[in-house]
Amino acid sequence: AVDLLPDGVAEADSQAAETWLLRFVVSRSGSSAPPSISLSSLEEEVLASLEWRASAQGRPIVDAAREGYTKAISGEKPWNNEPVLAAAPHSAEIRPFFTPAKLLTMRNANNDGLIYVIRAGQVNDKSLMSKVDADELADFFLYAKAVNERVAARLSANTGKLSSVVTVNDLSGVDLFGDSRFRDALSAASKTADSIFPGLAAETILLNLPFLVRTLVKVFTPLFPPSVQKKLKFSAFDIAPPEVLVDQASSGRAAFIADVNKALAS
Predict the structure, then answer these.
(1) How many CB atoms lie within 10 A of CB 18?
(2) Which residues, at least 6 apart from 176, have a Cβ–Cβ distance to it below 8 Å?
(3) pTM higher than 0.85 for the full model?
(4) Could you write out the DSSP letters of every residue in the chain?
(5) Which strand ranges, in their side-by-side order, compose the sheet holding 103-107?
(6) Cross-strand bridge partners of residue 118
(7) Distances (CA, A) of 184 to 59, 64, 224
(8) Which of 214, 194, 221, 261 is nearest to 45 (CA)?
(9) pLDDT digit string (tens) for 23-58?
(10) What is the pLDDT of residue 32?
């Protein structure tokens, strides 16, 4: 199972192993305070995560995540996203719909956590879903989470803090009559990841909800697992143009991260 887990987790009594197991505890409590939980149920959750990683669905995803992550950190640059995209499930069909400005991950302001941005309103979901089915798209999203798990593990090792991922879903321009299978894939991936990668997801910010949806927000909320529903935030602010957001040194990207922090504090 060594290759199914982030680096160092399979080493007995390692800091990485303790951090990985801590995520299962934290996911139960919703905080870093030790909750009152059953060790047997905790063991079941750990085993369920391992079983999924070794399953017919999970194994190809975690293998691809390991491959993409390893290549991403092995070059001259600190991070090369090209091999991550290339290794993704159904990359050839899905990648054209998710340019870096529509789906990207960045460090937070303190460099001890991640911000995962998906601009769902900018994705042509009807065209996308003519290329793949909901299960295939869900595997793509799970792959992204598996990669983020490895990045978060590395950040945790470097900072001594339990690194997590804030998700920002920008719904500007979303088609209310778009393909429901796209939403089904997002929902399926979120629910599966909640048990496979516990303690990884922090808050989810639903950004720039259309006016009509603001009155129907309860329709969106059930798409997320209960643990995520408790962390939902709603906000509205303009995201920098694509070419600015992907520039790590741009003031627009820094302003976006600052806006995310404000939304989290609200």
Answers:
(1) 10
(2) 210, 212, 213
(3) yes
(4) -GGGSSTTTTSTT-HHHHHHHHHHHHHHHSSSSPP---HHHHHHHHHHHHHHHTSTTHHHHHHHHHHHHHHHTSSSSS---HHHHHHSTTHHHHGGG--TTTEEEEE-TTSSSEEEEE-GGGS-HHHHTTTS-HHHHHHHHHHHHHHHHHHHHHHHHHHSS---EEEEEE-TT--TTS-HHHHHHHHHHHHHHHHHSTT-EEEEEEES--HHHHTTHHHHGGGS-HHHHTTEEEE--PPPPHHHHT-TT-HHHHHHHHHHHHHHH-
(5) 103-107, 114-118, 165-170, 201-207, 232-235
(6) 103, 169
(7) 22, 23, 10
(8) 194
(9) 998 887 654 445 566 778 889 999 999 999 999 999
(10) 46
Residue 234: name the closest of 210, 201, 205, 191 by CA: 205
- Distance from C-alpha of 84 to C-alpha of 72, rounded to nearest angstrom: 6
Task: Retrieve residue 235's tokens.
Answer: 């906000």
With a CB cutoff of 8 Å and minimum separation 6, the contacts of 38 are none
Nearest to 139 by CA among 57, 194, 81, 83: 57
Cβ distance 266 to 236 under 8 Å? no
Would you state the structure tokens that stand for residue 2, as one six-digit string? Answer: 């060594």
Which residues, in sequence order, are CB contacts of 80 under 8 Å at separation 6+?
Answer: 71, 72, 73
β-bridge partners, 107? 114
CB 33 within 8 A of CB 26: no
Q: Which of 136-145, 173-182, 223-232 has the highest mean pLDDT?
A: 136-145
What are the phi and psi torsion angles at 100 (to 5°)?
-55, -30
| CB-CB contact of 197 with 19 (8 Å) | no
**Side chain identity, residue 214:** R
CA 143 – CA 132 distance, rounded (Å): 15
Q: Which residue from 194, 204, 217 is spatially nearest to 260, judged by alpha carbons? A: 204
